[in-house]
Structures
1.
Amino acid sequence: MAANEMREKLIEKAAEAYQKAHAPYSNYSVGAAVLADDGEIYDGINIENAVYPLTICAERVAIFKAVSAGKKKFKAIAVVTKNGGTPCGSCRQVMAEFGLDTVVYIADTSGKLIQTTTVSELLPNAFGEGDLNES
Ligand SMILES: [Zn+2]
């Protein structure tokens, strides 16, 4: 599959997931879809809770689904919101755990690509495994 076809498919999956978001408090739905290096796609939605801090973002749901399925290398992740919002700091850190080179597509609900970036661009000087091992 060509790169632009894969990008379109990933954004489409994120937009489909967006419809299932559970965001009754913020009314800010988010859909995400992460492409593992074996070609599998895992989607995610933001899931809010009446106890607000328990809310989890779509990007982390998608990544955690993939990781729990044994995937730890990702080519790209697409994030869909109504206005092209970018991933929060927590999600950037979780993405960094699995690779700074992962491509991040930011799109809106119409499927329009707003921005193409990478995890390393979103989180420069990321804290990582190497920091823990330095003596
Ligand atoms: Zn987040």
2.
Amino acid sequence: MTRHAGDTPHIRRVARVLLIAVAFLGAVALLARFLPPAWHPRTPVDLTAAPNWLAASKLAWMRQDPEACFAAFAASAIPVTRVPDRPSTTGCETENAVRLPSVLRTIPASPTLSCPMAAAWTMFERHGLQAAARTHLGQEVAGIRHLGTQSCRNIGGGTVRSQHATANAIDIAGFILRDGREVRVAPDWPGSGRDAAFLRAVRDAACRWFRVVLSPDYDAAHRDHFHLDMGPWSSCR
Ligand SMILES: [Zn+2]
């Protein structure tokens, strides 16, 4: 075999790259071993604790790993009632769904939602919605009024299935406050009063936890509700 003059520097370069890669992987493994549970990528997210910046990523990942979602509810000591899977040949299957385990009064009661949606709701309800209510209305939310979660249909008369087809979305029409008063997306969204400010803060808070949030700012079809989903797209309007 003929040795070329350029071989030795080449071998040294490869060895250096390999050494750096091994050192990097070793550092990552060491770091993962000593990370606090809340910062470990593989630890189930605690849905009740104050969220860190990793929490939203863990929620988004649940779409690929539904068992991580059930593990998060178990780790958070929040009991969930699973809804039996229901296959579909038309893109309207129910898989890994639960009854929404909201601490709020839900009208209509106990809607079916995908587990990642229920997890995102739990975060939003505890770490976004109530803070918005306290800031803008001086009291907390006691209940929500929704327009449905599950509906075998396409988006806006098109050919693409809505996230509602698989119970991966919810439409929120109003918020019932502790004093019994209700703030509704219609007619309270327009204007510059405290109810409108509350609704805008709620929309913005929802954007942290859900993949898609559509408000009356998006189009006329959403003039009376917020659409929240955990589908593949990302939008906050
Ligand atoms: Zn919707």
